[in-house]
Amino acid sequence: MMRTLFPGLGALWLLACSTIGDPAGLPDQLPHGGTGQFRPLQRSELGIVGEPEGRALFLQANAVGPSMVAAGHLFYTHALIRADAPEPPADWSAGDVFWPAFEPRVISRATPRENPGFDRGTQILEASAAWEGDAVFDPWVWVEPDGSVKLYYASSGGIGLATADNIDGSFSRVGNDAILALGLRGEVPRRPSVTRDTTGTYWMYYTDGAGISVARSDDGLQFISDANPDLEGTQTFTLTGDDDLDSNEVQVQDPGVVGVITPAGRFVIRMYFESLRADGSRAILVAGSEDGYTFERYSLRVLPGDDLRAPAPVFVDPRVSLLYYSAPTGMATESRAIAVAVTPAGTRYDEMPEDSENTE
Amino acid sequence: MRTLFPILCSLLFASGVSAQAFDTFGAGSRSVGMAGAVSADVDDFSAAYYNPAGLARRRGTQIALGWFGAQPELNLNGLSSNVDLTSGMVLGLVVPGEIDDFGFAFAVGFHLPDQQLLRSLTVPRINPRWEFYDNRTQRTNISVALAIRPFDWLTAGFGISFLSTTDTNLSIRGTLDAFSPERGRLEHEVSGDIVSIRAPLAGIQVQPIEELSLGIAYRGEVSLDSVLIAQVIGDIEAAGFSIPAYFDLLTDSISAFIPQQLSFGASVQATPRLRINAEVTWVNWAAYVSAIGTASVVLDIDVPAELADQINIPDEIPAGQPIPAYFEDRFVPRIGVDARVYDGASYALDIQGGYFYEQSPAPTQSGYTNLVDTDRHTWSLATGLTFRDVRPFIPGVIVLRGHFQYSWLPERVVIKDSPVDPIGDYVASGHIFGGGLMLEVLFE
Q: Distances from the Cα of B2 to the Cαs of A32, A303, B238, B328, in angstroms?
């Protein structure tokens, strides 16, 4: 019996030892709170040329403003350069778009590519109502569970709303006036950013003069805010905590929010925003809130750079977040570009061939 | 420059942790099969871990050779944490003797990992990590023990457990592109010293009547200070400048910790073919020292005057401070049975089964730390096939043993105090599948 047993034992032993030398795995699937630090995607990951690193859309001789991504589509502020474009004054900041050199701003919808980059797409909204003045800008899209879409946007008369049946559809204005004509601070609101919580309440955060204010709505159409004193149930937006930046903060503006249901089932609003500092720089920071009114600030900047603006987050999954933002290009006519960054910084996208069509 | 800081900071906050496989998965197929409830009922080489007093009960020399493996399938938010397999060879030797009715025995047990002999893991301090399973078990372990039997009803044993770990030096030299780190040209040099730490073992077994055995075993605390030194010397290329830089990191942490434990066990021979064991182990987790230790940094970068207004180098980088783990003591109940299902002239067949429950000693990680752990329910099953008809090859018997161990780690929900926590909320859960084979030769 032992003579037949020993070969079997030997085979078992060899089988048991067959794992010797196997490479170790890496703990690469960790949760991440979306606080950064974000890494601008590389040109090789996006296949899009031009400065700066992380450029998500290439439009030569065009101006682009704040943008956001919903359901895989990029909605952005867009303007064509005038044939008789005037020169900016000598003291014009190189990082700012000199809008008088461009046609009135419109809102466009870029078409998605296989990666976080986009192609030009088409114009979807231009100023036509009297209260809008000559331009519409700062789009923010909310996609309903049934696929219908709400497009919030800014104009000289406040924040307006247009809707479409689906993300590819045509947009029609809702009503004849702005849905929010005046902010809490008595300024014309701009840069709306909207999310909806698990109870169905819509939360709109917007730039209100030198700060950020909040309005809420049960239907996404009519918003209650501190600027409407005859409506009950209002509270004030509060930003708590300190940051670790050297220069003091003098103003916050241009919020970009995303509502996240964490793996633990908790609903949290993450707000990315511009922080203007006393030394003239701008940092993108993030804060979080459970109640929609009180936001706790994260102490570090989420993205390196002193002149990055209009952050717009995309929650990919509990591990990965993308952040679209406006970054300077260093070019006179095309002073800013839409760029994209990812966190955790170790996240890599497949390399893409450089797209000749995209270079125009 | 701003790209460099996260890299430096990740090193600043580095730490690691370790312990040993016997403590987590058990030693020896029979003992593992009985869920470790063997303080009052062990006389094979695994007594060098469970209760060295049991060695003095053995009447003949034992040589054991086997393989053991445990594959954790641990998840955070339903995604695998990629915790490595723990596996390796298990070797054991027990040599009993007797002088004028005074019995004694000597034993040695080895766990030799086959994935790597040594492992040093350094991760950012806020990264979630499975505190007890990731890296902790991949250690070489040697236990030696000596037991005496002054009376037939009393045995006592003492031993030492040796555990390996490392001190590590990391040196990096070269050029780093501040805005595109992947373009850097860096040479890395890593060196490590293997060091051992020791923990005492002691135990007593009392057998007031033939059908009953009682055991008490103590395993001492192991805590090893580990040092990681990292130096980066080179040039940082930024904005057309080549900037000389020097970075020195020193971390000091507890990289190996096993809490002291005290086990009380009882074993009853219920029938001639059935033995039932029960045990409870007090584990002093309150003394647990987190692997998050101190870290000090010296950063010296000679910034050109042209970039002085763009690059700010802090005069001093504050040292990282240890963060207490705040673990709590736990009692671990265990139960095991051993049944002889066949007892023939040529061979015999035994089976063992057991269960133990470990309540997690880790508090909910709602703050800065992410020392992930959950409760653990473990079921085990083992079998032993004894071949008696092996003469003239061996003057004794051969026992072929195998065991299977399954651990269920139920979901644990972690909700962070801060809605803007860098890790965020998460759910931890998992399973661990273990198994092993042993060949034992028992000489008469």
A: 21, 9, 11, 41
Q: Indicate the pTM of the whole model.
A: 0.83
For residue B31, the SS3 value is helix
Q: Is the peptide bond before A304 cis (omega within 30 degrees of 0)?
A: no
CA torsion A258→A263→A264→A265, rounded to 10°? 50
H or E stretch at B358: strand B347-358
- Which residues make Cβ contacts (< 8 Å) with residue B214, sequence separation at least 6? B40, B205, B206, B207, B208, B264, B265, B266, B267
The mean per-residue pLDDT over the stretch A182-197 comes to 91
Which of B420, B427, B433, B440 best tests the A interface by mutation, with the highest count of A CBs <10 A? B420
* pLDDT for position B271: 95
The reported pLDDT for the residue numbered B116 is 66
Does A20 score more than 70 pLDDT?
no
Preceding amide of A253 cis, omega within 30:
no
User: Which range has highest mean pLDDT (A9-13, A307-311, B134-138, B236-240)?
Assistant: A307-311
Q: Looking up tokens 């509060």, which residue turns up?
A: A238
Average pLDDT of chain B, as a whole number: 84
pLDDT of residue B11: 36
Tell me which DSSP letter residue B363 carries: P
First to last CA, chain B: 72
Q: Do residues B423 and A33 lie in contact, with contact meaning Cβ atoms separated by under 8 Å?
A: yes
Q: What is the ipTM of this complex?
A: 0.84
Q: How far apart, in Å, are the Cα atoms of A174 and each of A171, A301, B388, B423?
A: 9, 37, 90, 40
Tell me what the mean pLDDT of segment B96-119 comes to: 82
DSSP code of residue A266: -
A276 three-class SS = strand
The answer to whether B426 faces chain A, any CB pair under 8 Å, is yes
Per DSSP, helices labelled H in chain A are 2-16, 43-46
DSSP for B249-310, written as a single string: EEEEEEEEEE--EEEEEEEEEEETTEEEEEEEEEE-GGG---S--EEEEEEEE---GGGTTT
Q: How far apart are CA A318 and CA A312, in angstroms?
A: 17
Q: Are A294 and A240 spatial neighbours (Cβ–Cβ below 8 Å)?
A: yes
B124 to chain A, any CB pair closer than 8 A? The answer is: no
DSSP tag of B84: P
Q: pLDDT at residue B252 above 80? A: no
Q: Determine the pLDDT at residue B220.
A: 93
Q: What is the pLDDT of residue B158?
A: 95
Q: Output the CA angle A129-A135-A138, nearest 5 degrees.
A: 110
User: Measured between CB atoms, which of A9, A13, A318 is closest to B424?
Assistant: A318
Query: How is residue B363 written in tokens?
Result: 């508090």
**If pLDDT is split at 50, 70 and 90, which confidence band does B212 have?**
very high
| CA atoms B303, B306, B312, B314: torsion sign | positive
* Least confident residue range of A292-296, A346-350, B376-380, B427-431: A346-350
Averaged pLDDT, A136-141:
96
* pLDDT score of A214 more than 70: yes
User: Residue A322: how many CB atoms within 10 A of its CB?
Assistant: 20
Over range B196-210, report the average pLDDT: 91
- Beta bridge mates, B216: B204, B264
Q: The tokens 């005046």 sit on which residue?
A: A182
Q: What pLDDT score does B161 carry?
A: 87
* Separation in Å, CA of A344 to nearest CA in chain B: 10
Q: Which of A2, A16, A32 sits opposite B393 (nearest CB)?
A: A2
* Structure tokens given for A107: 């809102």
User: Looking up tokens 């682009």, which residue turns up?
Assistant: A64
